[in-house]
Amino acid sequence: MNAAELTGITKRFGTVNANDAVSLSIRTGEVHSLLGENGAGKTTLMKILFGLHHADAGSIRVNGEAVTIRRPSDAIALGIGMVHQHFMLVPRLTVTENVIAGTEVARRGFLDMASATAQVRELAERYRLTVNPTARVENISVGEQQRVEILKALYRRARILILDEPTAVLTPQETDELFSIIERLKEDGQTIIFITHKLRETMAVSDRVTVLRDGRVVDTVNTSETTPADLARMMVGREVLLRVERMPVEAGDTILEVTELSVESALGAHVRGVSLQVRAGEILGIAGVEGNGQLELEEAISGLRRHYNGTIAIGDRELRGGPEQRRRLGLAHIPSDRQRRGIIGGFSVAWNLILGSQWRQPFARRGVFRIASIVAFAKQLVRDFAIRAAGLFAPASSLSGGNQQKLIIAREFSRQPEVVLACQPTRGVDVGAIEYIHKQLLELRERGKGVLLISAELDEVRALSDRILVLYEGRIVAERPADCDDHELGLLMAGHTEESA
Questions:
Q1: pLDDT in the model for residue 71
Q2: Do 227 and 212 have their domain in common?
Q3: pLDDT over 70 at 280, yes or no
């Protein structure tokens, strides 16, 4: 019997079809990967199953019975739980308080915390979800927080567990532990739906895979009967080169130098005494679990954050001004959040391609825009960088995530930079766009330019970088070559000393 069946599910947001007549069957006791690029409709489909969205058309059956799921409480009553990509925890509460929130047990009118703590501890021990029930969530690791989310679902007797991009913020060791937890849940008869865009994880953890593209089901296959190349082809509709070809390049002089950089943050996260050098013909990678100072480092180097201690220099010129000064001195910036810092969604593709240069020749003269020059320039970049858009004057917000990222890269590279600050350059884009972006960064390296790569994707950092620096709690704790051991790198990212790692 199938644990869940979704038939003809359609969901529209305005004129966009997030799900287009999607039919999907999940077998009881299997690990079923839902694979696809960002915007393919994976999370929307599962939010419909969990009651966070309502389908415009289609039907749902759970354990063979037709059901109507109007809200998450309906889904929970049917034995469905969902662990979201961004955890839904209250940091100041304990593990137990977070797990039982909304289902508290009272005894003689008082909350029976002793009984609740015992239940949470028994559940944690049963599934070997190592976590202290009395610890405050703000004091435990990201991996432990994820276990708390899983415990929340199990405490509510979930038999169908939806995991939405569950490895996005985990170290390699925490990812391996998560896979072990999934295996134990499966042995206990749980049904797991694993939402991801990562091919390696799909192959490692799932029994079957359903691939979505543009809101439609491409195919459902047995994992043992497919390959990463086959899945990549289904995701993007063409052959994709999965292996990065990095040509040998001899590094030259230092282009970008950061010395004793310290940044304070209102949220408490900060950078502490970071020093690094990026040389010509080199990609320097920054590895680390998100939230360890990457954003503050990006903002300081790009000029978006003006208040910091220490120095940042391109060549022999110290950077003191904002983004405009840094652009003039040869710094290009691919921001970690393309929606907030990379594009203006309501502006056209053409205008986004000249942002930061709009008042310079040949785009303007004596304060008057030269539309013909802007159009010719934009048309050339759209062609050279294979940006798929409805037209040069279509809003940038209408582009897919991958094409928005291509737009940003086209604009930044068109300025002929000496060094590129590339932050999460492939976040949320499909494997085809990843292939393209990696190629562009490597070509820049081969032309003798420098790249500072800040990425939460460890595979990406290792594939592209000549050297890797590990960032933990705002400090550079180690430097490693690109061919270093995954296990050691993961331990360093989790805060182990170089000696223990």
A1: 93
A2: yes
A3: yes
Distance CA 160, CA 78 (A): 9
Tens digit of each residue's pLDDT (9 = 90 or more) over 156-177: 999 999 998 888 667 777 788 8
Torsion 71-73-76-82 (CA) sign? positive
- In this structure, are residues 22 and 214 in contact, taking their beta carbons and an 8 Å threshold? no
Planar angle of CA 461, 465, 470, nearest 5 degrees: 60
**Same structural domain for residues 348 and 428?**
yes
The pLDDT tens digits of the residues spanning 471-485 come to 998 999 999 998 888
Note the residue count of the chain: 501
Q: Which domain-ending residue is among 105, 124, 157?
A: 157
Same domain as 138, residue 33? no
Q: What are the distances in angstroms from CA 414 to CA 338, 418, 443? A: 17, 11, 14
pLDDT in tens, 21-62: 999 999 999 999 999 876 788 989 999 999 999 999 999 999
**Measuring CA to CA, which residue among 449, 417, 415, 453 is closest to residue 437?**
453
* DSSP per residue, 143-173: HHHHHHHHHHHHHTT-SEEEEESTTTT--HH
**Tens of pLDDT, residues 191-241:** 999 998 888 889 999 999 999 988 999 999 999 999 988 998 898 777 666
Instruction: Domain of residue 126: give its range.
Output: 94-157
Residue with tokens 């039982």: 100
Domain-located, residue 101: yes
**H or E element in which residue 326 lies:** helix 323-328
Residue (of 81, 269, 289) closest to 168 by Cα position:
289
Whether residues 285 and 210 fall in one domain: no
pTM of the model: 0.70
Instruction: Report the C-alpha gap between 130 and 127 in whole angstroms.
Output: 9
| Same domain, yes or no: 211 and 266 | no
pLDDT at 13: 82
β-bridge pairing 191-196 and 208-213: unpaired
Type of residue found at 126: R
Q: Which of 183, 203, 236 is the last residue of a domain?
A: 236
Q: How many domains does the chain have?
A: 3
Q: Are residues 47 and 106 in the same domain?
A: no
Do residues 119 and 139 both lie within one domain? Answer: yes
SS (H, E, C) 369-421: ECHHHHHHHHHHHHHHCCCCCCCCCCEHHHCCHHHHHHHHHHHHHCCCCCEEE
